[in-house]
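A note from the maintainers: we've had questions about how concatenated examples are separated. There is no special marker in the raw files; a new sequence line simply starts the next protein. For clarity in this README we add a label.
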Amino acid sequence: MLTVSGHAGDATSFAEDQPAATAVPAPVPATRPGAEAPAPAAPSSAATDQNSGWNAEVATPGGGLVLNDAQTEIVKKVNGYFNALGDLKGDFVQTTADNKPMKGKFMVKRPGRFRFDYARPSKQIIISDGEYLAIQDLDLNNEDRVALDQTPFRLLLRKDVDLLRDATIVEVQESDDQLVVALRDKSPDAPGKIKLLMAKSPQLELREWLTTDAQGLDTRVQISELNTGEKLDASLFKIQAVTLNKFHP
């Protein structure tokens, strides 16, 4: 399994000085037109903490960087990576503020579709069909669903990724072996901040991302054992009713 560095210690940093984060209201869960809304459920505090990096509003401090030529080229490289990305699968490790890692398998199919199956004992699935993102708890038989456009992931998985056009860049770093870019969506309907950590060698490749919620709590997701050579069935990204969904260890 690949190991991922959390920070580029020897990096040249272009990060801005940020004012204090301001809490923003949580998104309103969205349902498909004509479909029955998911039954309301009060998730446990542990579940809320675990999933805050996926569906909760995150800290949205001040303005972005005024990019120089070198910074602009770094962001363009990140654009190119995501625009060339097709089907992807691999392993992930998610670590929240309590420092308890959770593992599982993930799949991505652009545009807009991804699926994270958590290994036991969590029995949770996080899945996007390109329109909605659902967090499903198979033990509690409940679901939290939001529009994908209300999350920071829409910027990275859309058909035409252009972070210079659609995002406010708040941090750019480059070291010998790593690129780091942190960004917020410019759309007021999709507040969110996400930091991308990408390996440069042997080729540019996403290895980790970090989201920070309005309380300043971080959710880190590290990915490894990446496979881009397998065509993934679109049916894997269909959001099913919780009682019908199956858990993949």
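[label: protein 2]
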Amino acid sequence: MSLLDVSDITVRFGGITALDQLSFEIDEGEICALIGPNGAGKTTLFNVVSRIYDPSEGSLTFDGLDLLQLAPHKISQKGVYRTFQNLALWPGMTVIENVMVGDHTNTKSGFVSSMLRLGSGKEEKDLKLRAWQALEELDLAQHAFHPAAGLPFGTLKRIELARALIGKPRLLMLDEPASGLTHSEVDELGDAIKMLRDNHNLTVLLVEHHMRMVMGISEKVVVMNFGKKIAEGIPTVVREDPAVIEAYLGSSAA
């Protein structure tokens, strides 16, 4: 049964069509990769699901709920979380504090009060415990009370995963999580994503250029070019599609 249903989503910026009647579904518990050349519209789709952009046309439902009727700050409360291409951590805060921020929208005290330590003591204690558990699961507990500044890039990427995990997501959207990582770090990240999916029954929408990871962890791949879907299916079929090879993968991908 589909958890996310993207139906005929079109986004126009002036005379430019960034998304052109894009449609696909993601089943609950599935890892789905969204791939395509730079400028294909992948991040635009993420921004529509996150409610940063309003589509010109189309519908978007999450577990039967019309996401387009929700304000952006309500999205995470429904279980939709995302990471960004660029790191969005606070360097001067400790790792565990950065992770705790990931669930501020679901606390009574809110983000500002939590930062100023004005929230409920019991609530903050529970939040810190859940942050610690997320760090342990991703083998990051040893960094919990160190500032984020100066940590290796691969470690910072996993901290972002922990921060998204603490909010108890149902749909986790990862925007180029392997960007800037070494080959070994990419393999570790792929294993971590699969582990989190299995442990927490997550549904994952992944935008990624690292094809080895995409083909290794995805159950479905949706390929875009110039805002349109040009292919969809299991990785082994999609990678052999002539339109995909011409638009993106290149003959060496086979």
